[in-house]
Write a structure and sequence with these properties.
Chain lengths: 261, 321, 689
């Protein structure tokens, strides 16, 4: 199976504190640390497991600048065979659709049976996979938490409400967006990353891909972020104050009134 | 005039709650716009839903086809692509179905796409102003969406106000207009989550634990409080991911939907995916040692304490009653 | 009448000289033994290098104290005494055994130097030695077969019980003792009867008893007995010699070597590969132990040397907590694999195609180890464990086999230099606490300079509950007149657990960053309140100024009078000091904290039964806090129960991880209100005059 996995370099959400910069139009990025989008990492692990079973190879691709290369290397240290960086000034400011168009151009340069993305990334939109599929006219399934490869058609399970799983059969080639928890990604240590430090990662621009500059980047974007803000928190909860005993007394009274006891 | 279409998912003949929220969203997009509901499916259930929706929408488009008996997003996408006019605004709920359907639909309709929108601030010419969040809800953003050639938008369930109804619309059957509904993805079956020992959806009072529980061994403390309250222990996603509790105990958009009278959120930060599993406006008590936890925005009562200290004390006090 | 005929001269059935047996038995025996030993040495020559020829004086001391002196044996008194008797007996009787072999060919042979008074004294002693060994073996067999002490039991998953083998060998030893004594007694009785010789074995020794009971036997009988017993002894002796390398009694041969080559330095971790410097690490094909031959020859020798005594597992806290780890079986399983892959019979070498952690070990088994060192401290044969666990972990990390629960803190360490993922600039936020900041300032060595560095390390810097340790330590240092500063955001995690969990290159990065920051600051000494940091900086890092623990400073200053302690504020409480593994066992600091506590007048202090180098690990520190082990109970809970049993209601500890684990354990054990945990710095600072 030839598998393409689309990955993205995103800020770590765990302990990063997000503050607005002094101009108020973007986040203060000085102290942020970045890494590969968690969902994308699950996708690469899944690809590795599929290839371990069925043979084939894995290419990881990202749209970004020089700094984005580090996530490609990390995924290659994990086990992806090749990496491709799609980078061009013209790509900056692309919305989801623009990214999908860029990725589509790359997909058409190869012959992939399976294209994976993470179910969502830092913007929480979960859009690129579905768009890419529609542009390629490939079938799509999102929030995939199980893949059972077979000949020509594969079985996939989707995570749906209530903890249930929707099983589908889907023809190849197809695009799948991968949900966290589908597998347990293997560890990638510093040593692994150093081992791939000098592997070549080709960089392709708009010209190499044959992408029309008007359809991507800021020029082609229909969605534009105006600013970041931290919302006005509003009234919220009635905060109980006092000693723990006092708080518990008040709480019990309220619970009795609401039928909680 | 802006044409707004709202796709309404349903289950067992009952439309999802978001159906009542679309009109508010549509009003905020364009107060003068008409909003048409669209339902797809097959048979009696579909008819029932379509008819009920006429109480909320002036027009309900019904698409009846055996291929749509189960909502396979790939097939629905094809159907909608043939029915919906190219420059319309289409609203879809941002849930597992919406995420499956909407991005591809926006390409088929050659429209803009905006996901998980929590508020609209009206249209300026063709530029639709909206608000959404990024980074797991840590920050909000103002976004402009060029909707002049149409837009597909998923809205966050629960972010818009439900209407009371008060319409008397009619059902329009467009089953014949959908064209070829074959797709390269076939629905097989739904594998239900394993029924655990306890059904949290049946309990009136829930003691729900999040990361603040810190360790699997501490779950006992929550269980003892639950016992004292006659409640059941539920949890947020991280607890299930760590395999400390079964999936059947998870409250949230990817877990169970609960409608208790009282919801004790212990050590839960209050992510919208978790809160999205709580319906019916219960009395929410939030205990969290972080005074800035988002849960304090949505709870009724807030207490800044370490749950590991607070729960045993609360339990003792209740037992003394 | 003539003397009894010796085996060297005897004619079987009147014509067959038994001396032929006397000659060929040793030849065959030694030949077979040599072949077996060659097969046993085969894997060692394929193993990785190990530098064990340094520190010769220390090694000779170990031979004398650990091997000859058997100093670790009495830690289990009953078994220890028995073993010391058998060991001493073996040493003494080795001379007799050697002579006996030669006597079978050259009658009347006496080892050089053993003619004359030394010989007489020796003969006297050897008789008692044989008697003592026999009695000890009988008691030992009784213990094994009837009493069955728990630590010898073999849990089902590890295979069949080992009692049969143990009793069999004890039987062989008894046979040797009896046959040798009987051989001698027959000659004595014969010669007494035939020639009136009154030369008897040592009074009340086994040989003496035999010779008295044979008083009325016929000469013919005695002659036959003498010959038969000789060859029984000879055959048994060479059988035993060849049997030794086949099982747990291999230690009889390897013990002296294993003890010579045992660790002389404590607390440090072996390099990835001896002979490969830190800079050359990138060139290595593979890290760690993935298959058998990746172990060093000393580690393989360890596997051979295990006497299956179970003391390591008996002391192992992970084992006590019901984790899947039993150190004894780490060794036995590896030994059995060596026997399997390098069989004696065919001379073929088998290669396992599976990784060790897929074959004989499980991943959980390997991650369960807290590196506390109790096993290594206990082993009378100097068998090591920590380096092996670290090496196997290095292999697993390289293969990506790291539990999900550890991946997050490792990634955080990579990105932020601490396992919590918190921002670097917040590392020194603990100094800003309101009440503290009002009266104390702490120097930032990025801007200021000072004599001493207070290395805070990650948990004390970032954990809300533990930051108090940093503040108290600062106050203590201030009052002690120490000019100190902190590195603040220039400090990274010391990496003590990072290297022990097998992430070598991340550890190298942390070490490089810390070393640079420390050397740039120009400090002359380093102090820390975190024993894990102490250990890393002192034992694993190189080129740093001397490192001390805060308890050492406190004890020194109390003695010099620079610090005085007020009387105890809580006279009704009973305090007990828990020795942290990385302060005690790994760094031998036992007395300083106790001296400091005892300087507080009126403080009632008791000792735990398992204290000092027998201390019981709290559950582990560093990355171990994030690991989710499979266990029946928490190690901390076991420790809290021990403290309660000792009659204490306050556990004092000198390690932030011990504090966290014990505080949690008190809650889990439901002992809140009955037991509390205090850090050393808290107790001391409260009582500073």
């Amino acid at each position: 199976m030839e598998i393409l996995v689309c990955v993205k370099r995103v800020p770590d959400t765990a302990e990063n504190e997000f503050e607005l910069n002094s101009d108020g139009n973007d986040l203060d990025r000085d102290d942020l640390v970045y890494s590969v989008n968690e969902w994308d990492n699950y996708a690469v692990e899944e690809a590795i497991q599929i290839v371990d079973n069925l043979g084939g190879s894995i290419t990881v691709v990202t749209v970004g600048d020089d700094e984005a290369e580090e996530v490609l290397r990390r995924e290659m240290a994990m086990g992806a065979n090749n990496g491709v960086l799609l980078s061009d000034d013209a790509f900056e400011g692309s919305d989801g659709r623009g990214l999908a168009a860029i990725l589509k151009a790359e997909v058409e340069k190869g012959k992939y049976d399976l294209i994976l993305t993470g179910a969502q990334a830092d913007e929480g939109a979960g859009q690129v996979g579905g768009m890419l599929a529609a542009m390629l006219d490939y079938p799509y399934a999102s929030l995939v938490n199980k893949i059972e490869p077979a000949d020509g058609k594969i079985k996939v399970g989707r995570e749906i409400e209530g903890g249930n799983q929707e099983m589908n059969e889907i023809e190849l080639p197809c695009v799948l967006s991968i949900q966290t928890g589908i597998n347990e990604p293997r560890y990638v240590g510093i040593r692994g990353i150093r081992k791939v430090a000098s592997v070549e990662i080709p960089v392709k621009g708009a010209g190499d891909l044959g992408v029309d500059a008007g359809s991507v980047g800021e020029a082609g974007a229909k969605i534009k972020r105006v600013d970041y803000f931290v919302p006005d928190l509003g009234d919220g909860a009635e905060m109980l104050e006092g000693s723990t005993d006092e708080i518990i007394e008040k709480l019990i009274e309220k619970l009795k009134a609401k039928g909680g006891l | 005039m802006t044409q707004i279409f709202a796709y309404v998912p349903f289950k067992n003949g009952v439309a999802e709650d978001v159906a009542q929220e679309f009109p508010d969203a549509a009003k905020k997009i364009d107060a003068g716009a008409s909003v048409t509901a669209v339902v797809t499916g097959s048979g009696a259930d579909l008819d029932k839903v379509a008819n009920e929706l006429t109480q909320t929408y002036s027009e309900v488009i019904k698409i009846d086809d055996t291929a749509l008996a189960y909502p396979n997003a790939e097939i629905v996408r094809k159907a909608l692509a043939n029915i919906i006019p190219a420059d319309a605004i289409v609203l879809v709920p941002h849930n597992t179905f919406g995420m499956d359907l909407a991005p591809g639909l926006s390409i088929n309709l050659d429209s803009a796409y905006a996901a998980d929108v929590i508020d609209f601030e009206g249209m300026d010419g063709g530029a639709l102003k909206l608000i959404r969040q990024e980074l797991g809800g840590a920050v909000s953003t103002h976004v402009t969406c060029d909707a002049s050639a149409g837009a597909v938008i998923t809205i966050r369930p629960g972010a818009f106000a439900p209407t009371d109804g008060g319409a008397s619309g009619s059902v329009v059957d467009k089953s014949g207009d959908v064209g070829d509904l074959s797709a390269k993805r076939t629905f097989l079956e739904v594998v239900e989550a394993e029924v655990g020992d306890v059904d949290i959806t049946k309990s009136d009072v829930l003691v729900s634990i999040g990361r603040g529980i810190e360790d699997e061994d501490n779950i006992e403390v929550a269980q003892e409080l639950a016992d004292a309250m006659g409640a059941v222990v539920s949890c947020s996603r991280p607890i299930v991911d760590a395999k400390w509790l079964e999936k059947s105990r998870q409250v949230g958009t990817s877990g169970q939907t609960v409608k208790p009278k009282v919801y004790m959120a212990m050590g839960i930060s209050g992510s919208f995916q978790h809160m999205g599993g709580i319906k019916g406006n219960p009395f929410i008590v939030a205990v969290n040692k972080n005074p800035k936890a988002p849960i304090f925005q949505v709870a009724d009562v807030g207490i800044v304490e370490d749950i590991l200290d607070f729960m045993p004390e609360l339990q003792e006090a209740i037992e003394e009653l | 009448m003539s003397m009894i005929i010796a085996p060297a001269n005897y004619m079987l059935f009147g014509f067959f000289p038994t001396v032929i047996f006397s000659f060929f038995l040793p030849v065959i025996g030694v030949g077979l033994f040599t072949y077996i030993m060659a097969r046993r040495i085969a894997p060692l020559v394929r193993a990785n290098p190990d530098y064990r020829f340094n520190n010769i004086p220390e090694r000779i001391k170990n031979i004398i104290v650990v091997w000859l002196g058997q100093i670790r044996q009495p830690r289990y008194m009953r078994a220890g005494i028995l073993h010391i008797i058998i060991f001493a007996g073996f040493l003494i009787l080795s001379i007799r055994s050697t002579s006996l072999v030669v006597i079978g060919v050259f009658d009347g042979f006496v080892l050089p130097g053993f003619d004359g008074s030394l010989g007489t004294v020796y003969n006297f002693i050897k008789d008692y030695a044989a008697t003592a060994v026999l009695v000890a073996c009988i008691v030992a067999a009784y213990r094994r077969a009837i009493i069955k002490p728990a630590r010898y039991a073999v849990p089902e998953k590890y295979g069949h019980d080992h009692t049969a083998e143990a009793v069999f060998v004890l039987g062989i030893i008894c046979t040797l003792m009896i046959s040798e004594s009987m051989f001698e007694a027959a000659a004595v009785a014969y010669n007494h009867r035939a020639l009136g010789e009154a030369h008897f074995p040592a009074f009340f020794s086994l040989a003496w008893v035999f010779s008295k009971s044979l008083k009325f036997a016929s000469l013919e009988f005695l002659q036959s007995l003498h010959i038969i017993m000789y060859y029984v002894h000879d055959v048994t002796f060479f059988f035993f010699l060849c049997f030794l390398p086949l099982g747990k009694h291999f230690h009889v041969i390897t013990s002296i070597f294993n003890v010579f080559f045992m660790r002389v330095k404590k607390g440090n971790v072996k390099p990835v590969k001896y002979g490969v410097s830190d800079e050359e690490l990138d060139n290595l094909e593979s890290f760690g132990v993935k298959k058998l031959e990746d172990f060093t020859w000393k580690h393989m020798l360890d596997f051979y040397s295990c006497a299956d005594c179970g003391r390591c597992s008996d002391q192992c806290p992970a084992n006590a907590a019901g984790r899947p780890l039993s150190p004894r079986f780490i060794t036995i399983k590896a030994r059995d694999l060596m026997f399997k892959n390098y069989p004696i019979k065919s001379g073929v070498i088998y290669k396992s195609d599976k990784l060790l952690v897929e074959d004989i070990y499980t991943e959980d088994e390997i991650w369960s180890c807290t590196t506390c060192g109790a096993c290594e401290q206990e082993c009378p044969l100097g068998i090591e464990y920590i380096d092996k666990m670290v090496d196997i972990r290095r292999g697993m990390v390289e293969e990506g086999m790291v539990p999900q629960s550890l991946q997050k803190p490792l990634k955080a360490l990579e990105k932020r230099g601490n396992p919590y993922g918190k921002m670097e600039k917040k590392r020194a936020d603990w100094v800003k606490e309101k009440t503290f900041a009002e009266t104390h300032t702490v120097k930032d060595l990025g801007k200021d300079s000072a004599d001493t560095l207070y290395f805070v390390d990650s948990i004390t810097s970032y954990d809300d509950n533990i930051q108090e340790i940093a503040r108290r330590t600062s106050i203590i240092l201030e009052k002690a007149g120490v000019d100190f500063g902190i590195l603040g955001k220039g400090e990274k995690d010391s990496g003590n657990e990072v290297v022990r969990f097998g992430e070598e290159m991340l550890y190298q990065e942390l070490k490089a960053q810390n070393t640079e920051a420390i050397l740039e600051s120009g400090v002359k000494q380093i102090v820390t309140a975190d024993p894990h940091a102490l250990n890393a900086l002192k034992k694993d890092y190189t080129g740093l100024p001397p490192v001390k623990h805060i308890s050492e400073i406190v004890a020194e200053k109390i003695e010099s009078g620079e610090l005085t302690m007020r009387p105890c504020k809580n006279r009704d409480k009973v305090y007990v000091y828990h020795d942290p593994c990385y302060l005690g066992r790994h760094n031998s600091i036992y007395e300083s904290p106790r001296q400091a506590l005892d300087a507080i007048a009126g403080l009632t202090r008791v000792e735990l039964e398992k204290s000092r180098d027998r201390s019981f690990c709290c559950g582990g520190g560093g990355l171990m806090l994030f690991y989710e082990p499979e266990e029946e109970t928490r190690m901390g809970v076991l420790r809290v129960n021990m403290a309660a049993e000792a009659g204490a209601n306050v556990i004092v500890t000198a390690c932030p991880f011990c504090l966290v684990n014990i505080q949690d354990a008190i809650k889990v054990a439901g002992k809140e209100g009955e037991m509390e945990a205090l850090d050393f710095t808290q107790l001391i600072e409260e009582h500073l005059a």
